Amino acid sequence: MSKSKRNERIGLIVKVLAEAPNKLFSFRYFTDHFHAAKSSISEDITIVKRIMQENGLGKVITLPGASGGVKYIPEVPQSIKKMAIERFSSLLNDSSRSIPGGFLYMADLLYNPEIIMPIGEIFAELFLDKSVDYVMTIETKGIPMAFMTARFLNVPLVIVRKENRITDGPTISINYVSGSSNKLGTMYASKRSIKAKSNILIIDDFMKGGGTAKGMVDLVHELDARVVGIGVLVETSEPQQKLIKDYVSLLTVDRSKEGVIRINPTKKE
Hints:
The chain is α/β, with parallel strands linked by helices. The chain has 8 helices and 12 strands.
């Protein structure tokens, strides 16, 4: 592009960084793109850093050296996290969402970008320091949320299937017991879906007993990779003992003695 003014460069730098979070861009990338001197780009980045920090929009960090550059790390202010979680909780507590059998209808919320995008950003920040290589989820309603998480981490999404697909090529499968239905099932993942020794973040929309999450953990191990975190949007308070221990949930379903169901932000231990 032709040589641009500083205010134009700053706007475009913010756009480039925000659209590729956690990706390192060399200074050469920006100097070539804007036909500007490195000193000018350095000043631009300093301004972008200040703007992002002062407005609670995340951090822009620079790394020195030949292999260095600049990258954007998303951050969600505590007030925004609280607002997003409480909004989801409030929507779920609408009595019209109750389904016979103790279930909740929440598909429309999980498929709404405006509602689910902040949730994905919260999960991404929670596991930002885990050097995540892939986000994994099972083919359920939680796919949009897992995709948003992968988007903010800037890593690929791996979808575990409940049926084998010839288009996936060679697969690895494991049997698991669903925590919600207590039924035996099988899940499959393509051998090409992740590289060995990779760090995997598991994201799920709902957990009762933890059987599905444990199945994905076992599948990751079969793929010769490591689970570095498990994020769950909604969990039930019962059973208290889940099949997995190390996970983070945002909301908890509680049932009173009178049978009334309430969804509240998960209390931190």
